[in-house]
Design a protein that fits this description.
Blueprint: H1 6-9, E1 10-13, E2 19-20, E3 30-31, E4 38-39, H2 44-47, H3 52-56, E5 66-71, E6 87-92
Amino acid sequence: MSQGEAAAHIHVQDDKGKVLPDELLPGQELWDPSFRRLTMTFDPGRIKRGLTSNRTIGPPITEGRHYALVIDRAWPDARGVAMAEGFKKNLHRRPA
């Protein structure tokens, strides 16, 4: 995949299909050496309780709710070719 574009093409949706803005930390693309595996992180300020981001915006995901991780079909690979189809993975945050 093309580097530096993950934040524009990876989204978290709520259970109604609404894109949740600013869930993933922008500018943090952690690729493996072969550029085949990408790790994206939630904003640490929204995860840690008591920090300003957590208090004002809230946690990125809430216990007991359903979400989906969506990757846009339009994200080009390293050669500039778009994916054959998009990707969607349904997620559920279980109570601790």
